[in-house]
Model the fold of this input.
Amino acid sequence: MSRHALPQGGVVVANLRNSIQPTPPELCGVLDAIATSVIWLDENGAVLHLNEPAEDLFGVSRGNAMGRSIRDLLKANVELDGVIARARAVGAQYSQRELPFEAGPGAAHRDLDVTVTPFDSPGQVGGVIVELADVTQHQRILRENALLTQLGGSRAMVRQLAHEIKNPLGGLRGAAQLLERQLRDPALHEYTTVIISEADRLAALVDALLGPGQPPRKEPVNIHELVQHVGHLLAAEAPTGVAIERDYDPSLPRLRLDRNHVIQALLNLGRNAIQAVGSHGRIVLRTRALTNASIGSRRYRVVASIQVEDDGPGVPTELKDTVFYPLVTGRQGGTGLGLAVAQDLVGRHDGLIEFDSRPGRTIFTILLPLDSHESSENT
Done:
């Protein structure tokens, strides 16, 4: 879809504008029949009408919204307000894709395709109709499929690279040991010790890249006991000014998984969060049971969601597309392996790690299907 293409339902609004304009009650009936969120504003930006999807989007009833300024409903969504202002300024239809939107504090982040169409009813000049199509789920599926493709490609590349590195490292270490035996001056042993220790460090790095050699040993696990264990480990590592909170969903059933694999993945996410917040901050460990949820293009009846949220500065914009690649890091001295290894470990359970990040709120979410056999392809 091009930048100025209409989202779903936009053709209806465009046809309304080009046809003989109905009376307001007739127009309201047409707007109520549109599946996307639609708001009709007067020349001052006051709400004349909004349909039921718009009520759900903004979290406000029609009665409470009528007559209020659209800016009261938009709150901090200044970009959407700007799209409406531009359409008014040019006096023509204006569209923008994938506009970020938040209904309020704590509400889920959404992406909207927006179309603003000038529309004057009898006795009303300067009105506009704003149509908002929620494309969040579509964007999420695209993003998750990209992550799954990235995981498969990076896993194969890293394994090949790791094997190529590991063989010469063994020869390098052995040669340093032989050299050490031939050196009569003990002072020179310092240099061979450095070679051996650095070879060992690189070998450990390669082992981390290769990941566990055995498939997951799955068994029924109480996910909250596992998350609680990780919380205790993180609390012991975190500075005193970092608060670690828990928010658990008691309806989450036991999962069949490799306990050690998931603990390691969660620890990697939690340690990244600790590094992000620094000496003062807040980290939340959260669990939820998601019904009829998707992981990539596959839909599951129930998916376990384990989140690690922090209030740090967020993932740098330039790293958002590559943050799960091995050896990619935004931290000085970091190896860039934590997220790559975590994604690999979760992927061994048919799961996925996704993230949403902006300054002050970053959430990494582990998605694990309760039963990988009870799934279907999305249509």
